[in-house]
Amino acid sequence: LIRSLKVVALGDSESLRRSAAYAKFADRKTGKRFWVVSVHLDDRHSGSLSTERSYNRLRGAQARAVYLKVNGLAKAGEEIIYAGDFNSWATNRAGDAPHQYLVGQGFYDSAKATTRINIKYPTVNHFQTTLSAKSIRLDYVMIKGSKRVLRYENVMKRVDSSRPSDHNLVVSDVIL
Description:
Blueprint: E1 3-6, E2 19-26, E3 33-40, H1 49-73, E4 79-85, H2 97-104, E5 107-109, E6 115-117, E7 139-144, E8 148-155, E9 169-175
Helix pairs in contact: 1-2
């Protein structure tokens, strides 16, 4: 059963409110249960540093609200895979609040995997077919409860032309 949750907004238009989806899964072989969370955090940015900081705080609050909901449902020992478009990145001048919050809660960034493919390219492509080498990751796969990530890949080739996206597919091989 997949559930969704509306997340924190700035008090502006309801059409700008974001939501997250989450579900509990079980490994078919072992029966081990784990949670998967999918988010698409606020996508606004500003040339004004103070406004950009408020958007960064908002994305951090959104990441926190979703984590607190799922963590409240998770039983001891159940790992959480938290992934999606954070609309934030490490070199953003206003900060990277969602990533920093999750790391502070014990999450491991799958981009630290043993094998990393196309890590030097951005995960957002803006529908361009050629990208410059800039490691700007808006899209993350974070894991709580395990630090065993074998492979991280920022897939540069569109594999389904009928469903184009302005982001690359990010794949992580995780051992739970």
